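Notes from the pairing session

We agreed to fold both candidates in a single pass and log them together. This is the raw record for the first candidate, unedited. Please don't reformat it; downstream parsing expects exactly this layout.

Candidate A
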Amino acid sequence: MPVQVVSASDGLLTLAVTSAVDLAIKEGRTINPAEILN
């Protein structure tokens, strides 16, 4: 299995988006991509 190299900024962005989506789901809110990006 090849090792995937991801820059730190990409990793943090992915983590932030994933966390925001997870939080929105837990709160039972609809997910608005614009809210996540702002």
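Candidate B (folded immediately after A)
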Amino acid sequence: MFIVGTDTFLVSPLLPTLSAMYHIPTAQSGWITSAYAIGYVIAALLAGPISDNRDKKKVLVGGFLGFALATFLCGFAFTFPLMLLFRFLAGVSAAIGGPQIWASIPVVIERKYVIRAMGYVGAALSVSQLAGVPIGSFLASVTWRLPFLVIGGLSLALCLITQLMLPTLNPNPAPQATAAGDSAQQARATRESQPSQVQSQPSPSQPRNSFLQTYASVLSNRMSLAVLLGYFLFQLGNFSVLNFIGTWFNKDFRLSLTSIGTAMIFIGIGNLIGTVFGSRLSERLGIRTSLLLGFGVLFALYLALPFAPSPVFATIGLTLVMLVNGFIFPLFMTLLQSTSTNARSTMSSLGNAAMYAGSSVAGIIGGSLITAFPSFFGIAYFTIIAYVLSLAVYTASGSLNGTDK
């Protein structure tokens, strides 16, 4: 999960370099991030339900093998169309392999350690957001190809480790002890008891189109649709900022790739702190109050951010933004899981699709905003509009009612 998350944020600091190399305007460079997101969205809508009827180990290894190859080939993309193709294929492969990590935990981990394991995977994803941009920046200071070659090589190594160490993960294993010592019955009980993205596996006797019926039930739920729309709008604004931090720092402050990477370390630390410690505060305040407080602080920060007179102030402002984002992110995931308790896995897949759809659209719109408006004004104020709409959708849907203690 750390590798997948790192690759997601790998390209942001490379956009100025790739724009110059491909001789494309900055507005078009956003398509490099969008291509990955588009591939992820398309594959996520199908891969999750389909993989429920197959050995998750094979799906995981196959997905990561494709991910390793596509990412490695990005390092040899000498033309803009080739880069778009390989990033698209990397997104498709990530959507196939990534969800199997969550789904495998209750099968291979003892029941009493499942929550802890879920936390480790979640922390890996958060740290990847912290590390993705600086890793990309530091490796790209040698050559722009190196980030893709390193991530591709590490992904291939993970494929080999997974193939050798992970047990078979059939959808309905016989009632015998797993490698971790849990029985299949205990694993099924864990999946039912834990409010995670992982659900009990369907019987092979169920029709193959059962996942279509599951999607139909979710999409007929107005509150579920509203929560997904609100989450999409939030991520639309969020990725508009994340995708073009490097471009802003390079354009306005003339920072090098190494300096951008250093700034992103501090920005990422803010996100990590918010993710780790924010849950305690939100438990005291409740979801509704926490979300209103978080959005209010973000509005104020984004209003002031474009006026930052130096990269130091810009970094401080973005660090505070990411701290608040880390604080409210678990609230979105909780709302996604609570609107359709019988289809939590499907809601997780749709939530991922909404996130990457937001990233895709943000890459396209953000490229135009960063060139059409001075400094960071266009992106910052567009993000405020997206957040206002997101909060309005959540409030109007009634999903926040009764969520405070």
